[in-house]
Amino acid sequence: MTIELDLYQKIRRLYLVDKLSQREIARLLNVSRKTIKKYCNGGMMPDARKVYVKEETPLRQAVEAEILKMLEENKTAPHKQQLTAKSIWEHLKKQKGFNIGESTVRNYVRELRVKKPEVFIPLEFEPGEAMEFDWGDAYAYLAGVKTKISVFCSVLPYSYGIYASVYPNKSNLSFFMGHIKAFEFFTGVPLRCIYDNLKSAVLEGSGKDAVKQESFKKLEAHYAFEGVFCNSAAGWEKGAVENLVAIIRKIAFTPMPKVNDFHELQEHVTQKCLEYCETHRLRDREKSIKKMLDEERRHLLSLPAVPLDPARIVVQVLVHSDLTVRFDGIKYSVPASLAGQYVTLKVTPFHVLIYHQGELIYTHKKALHKQDHQYIPEHYLEILENKPRAIKNAIPLKKGVMPKELSEFTRLNHSGDKNEQLMQILMLGRTIEQEKLLWAVKQANSTGSPTYDLVCFYLSISISKVEKIASPVTVDQVDLKQYDQLIMGGEIVHET
């Protein structure tokens, strides 16, 4: 029986203050002795609910173990083929022989499906002791195209100084470059770097049993830090970085940045990280991030005299007859003189550098999408001169990589021979400085109907201006001595 608070107070007062027996209190208040016994000694409040303890019977334990197994397998099943509570009950009853009701199984499934949050053990680090890393994803507009960005996040858990670098993917090259940029941003290296078991760094195993990649060992040795890998499903071992991806998304990718390329995006992200480190203060810290980061920088290891070059070297790649080499399914053009020869590629997250006999021949921007072949029109000029009938349909002229002024020229020029005109402009580039030539193309584009003749017209104007400015002006110096003598009233003496 549940009683009101006023009645509970009377029972307690009569029992403690007036020293009445339970029998007398029951008679006086016209309440059963069972109720008086329940509440008189203060062992239970009137609004207290009975606690029901879940009964762990052998049947329940066996059923729950089977359900957990099925739910785990269910995670990887296609969405339309995932098990429902009813199908689990039918499986338990028909395949496993459990005599259990459907509603009971539904309750078990509901309880077991509840996602429990991962718990963390609070950690404390000394200044310069550690840096934590993790990958995340965000979106940005690159040259007007919504693009998925891989974000390599780093944090110093003592000061909570943060930094992030951006890449087109989570390759080993990006992983190593992310370290180098982070160390340079913080102007030093910690004693330990802490990770999940990233494939970029670990061959196999986890935690203290992790087997490190040879390329990671090289990074580790050059910067003199110790790589530490978390045990499987032990995110608390690097708790500081767990919220960092969300912080970077909030400060640098909300709203979605609109930039021309990765270089501009990196400048934006770096600036936002700087602002966060300069102005932010953690709720449970007495000092600001800036003050703690200034202190921590003094405890970091010095950077090596020369930064590690993480570029991947691809040895001996054949130059095909279309003047291209292939890397990751993308074609990159080279000068015509190298057709049929072997060259060496040096690949970074953003560039493909082409070497021949130790000499750098050309540096391409690394393509971000399949079929985004990198044809440089200048590489094909010599061949096009000898095969003029190919000019109209030449892919290097139609889809080649060229300055925006030339791309705009081909867009605005509606002549049937616009490729021939583009070819002629490119030929001018052999004798005219690129800056001057592109200025003339830009002026021609501003008319709305650019042509090769207009480009030549503006070039002639540019050249004539330069000649006028460059022409020396001779000024004859006048002897003013005689004039001074006249002013002073003196007599002019003529020299013979």
What does this 3D model show about the protein?
With 496 residues, the chain is α+β, with helices and mostly antiparallel strands. The chain has four domains: 58-113; 130-297, Ribonuclease H-like superfamily/Ribonuclease H (Nucleotidyltransferase, domain 5, 2-Layer Sandwich), CATH 3.30.420.10; 312-374, no CATH class; 396-470, no CATH class. The protein has helices at residues 5-16, 22-29, 33-39, 58-74, 85-94, 102-113, 172-186, 214-223, 244-252, 262-279, 289-297, 381-386, 395-398, 404-412, 418-428, 434-445, 452-470, 481-487; strands at 130-142, 145-156, 161-167, 192-195, 202-204, 211-212, 226-229, 258-259, 312-318, 324-327, 330-333, 342-347, 351-356, 359-365. Helix 14 (404-412) runs parallel beside helix 16 (434-445) and helix 16 (434-445) packs across helix 17 (452-470). The longest helix has 19 residues, at 452-470. Residues 233-238 have low confidence and may be disordered.
Which key features would you list for this structure?
single chain, 496 residues, alpha+beta, Nucleotidyltransferase, domain 5, 6-stranded mixed beta sheet, 4-stranded antiparallel beta sheet, 14 strands, elongated
Q: Classify the beta-strand content into a percent band.
A: 15-25%
User: What about the largest sheet?
Assistant: 6 strands, mixed
- Name the average pLDDT: 85
CATH superfamily of the largest domain: Ribonuclease H-like superfamily/Ribonuclease H
Radius of gyration, in Å, reads 39 Å
- What gross morphology would you assign? elongated
In terms of per-residue confidence, which ranges show pLDDT below 50 for 5 or more consecutive residues? 233-238
Number of domains: 4
CATH-defined architecture of the largest domain: 2-Layer Sandwich
CATH class label of the largest domain: Alpha Beta
Amino-to-carboxy terminus distance: 142 Å
Q: What is the number of helices?
A: 18
